[in-house]
Amino acid sequence: MADPRGFLTTPREVAQRRPVAERVQDWKEVYADDVGRTLLPIITKQAGRCMDCGIPFCHQGCPLGNLIPEWNDLVHRDDWESAIERLHATNNFPEFTGRLCPAPCETSCVLGINAEPVTIKNVEVAIVDKAWDEGFIRPQQVDWLTGKTVAVIGSGPAGLAVAQQLTRAGHTVAVYERADKPGGLLRYGIPEFKMEKRQVDRRLNQMRREGTVFRIGVDVGRDLTGDQLRDRFDAVVLATGATVARELAIPGRELDGIHQAMDFLPQANRAAHGIEVESQISAAGKHVVVIGGGDTGADCVGTAHRQGAASVTQLEIMPRPADERAGGHPWPTYPMIYRVSSAHEEGGERVYAVSTTEFVAGRDGRVGALRLAEAEMVDGRFDPVDSSGRELPAQLVLLAMGFTGPEVGGVVAQLGVELDERGNVARDRSYMTSVPGIFVAGDAGRGQSLIVWAIAEGRSAAAGVDAYLTGGTALPAPIPPTARPMAV
Fold this sequence. Notes:
Elements: H1 6-9, H2 20-23, H3 35-47, H4 57-61, H5 68-76, H6 80-88, H7 94-100, H8 104-107, H9 120-134, E1 149-153, H10 157-168, E2 172-177, H11 185-188, H12 198-210, E3 213-216, H13 226-232, E4 235-238, E5 244-245, E6 258-260, H14 261-272, E7 287-291, H15 295-307, E8 311-316, H16 342-345, E9 349-352, E10 354-361, E11 367-378, E12 381-384, E13 390-393, E14 396-399, E15 403-405, H17 411-415, E16 438-440, H18 443-446, H19 451-470
Helix pairs in contact: 3-5, 3-9, 5-6, 5-9, 6-9, 7-9, 10-19, 14-15
């Protein structure tokens, strides 16, 4: 145990964000420096709050099986090089999860039963940021190659994880990405204020030095067919994500000014990096309404603030969550409680238990308002209450209601893989699809989920591919596809 009395004597303390008035003027992360550096004055004591439980439920909460008590103890003892070694043993990209994961490990922390849990996420990001600063993170190059080749389609967190694991196992790996730069949603879906893209580029440089090859600007299924993939590679991994956005088919949907969040956010990310964007969707001077109360919606809220929106309103069909864990979400499950992100701190209004029934036309064929109704649960679904209709001004509407599954045309159809009952790519316990040698990892097989699940599935799929190619594997497989706790 790091500090036998730490959980009694040290209160929980987290990284402090920059003042709102300052940070909404730029696109940098909301912390004054790398969040890990910001935490250094307090993090050893925070790590000392870990009780080193006999049964560490934080392991159960983490899909990656992170060895949390071990690296908490190492941080408390100021052994940072050993800490990053233990962290990398289960997680390829802790700088991503330490910034973006909602930390189900913390809601599983035993200390959280009757006190505030350990700041696990903050300790994680402090370890990896210091490890980069100290030069503890270096390319891991293999001494020999297997002669086997693997194509990974998609360069999001699942694709990057499977590619790094297989490269380190000695296979020759090519990652295909249809965008102009690799990273998937890490690059163009996550706003810069949540994670600066230098974090992605630094890890990609490590992967290139290890031997992973990136083929960008290649739309697999059009520029390269499924048959060509199978001819060129010994195995193929589909890591294309769940990119089909959920629609809102109500009157007025055809009006200008109504866009999917994933049309808006990538443009904003490009513009933040000085890349010229043709016909950019801008929130400047507009009343903005974001439909959807999740993380993507919050990303739209923060982006709209930085673009100079006149007002920002975020709508959620569910009732407002409770401030504390309710009886229906007992420890150690992930509780549905009221959370305030950095974007919400910056302003705007959050409206709960409402349903949009119509988009109302304004000038020149553009949206001018939304017609809303209170929503209530009827027979397991939320229906509008007709008598509660009201209008909300809106010159820009962003749909952030989640995703229904992967794109099933193109390479998925060309490869002839089967789909499951939810429309995702079906796979067995080794992550192989119905077609031998074709594997799937991440949201394309699991459905919309968290970054921590994507990395865990990438690592597990890599073990399946390695076993298929060589007859056995020493790669870890933390998540069999049949063991799927409810995503949070």
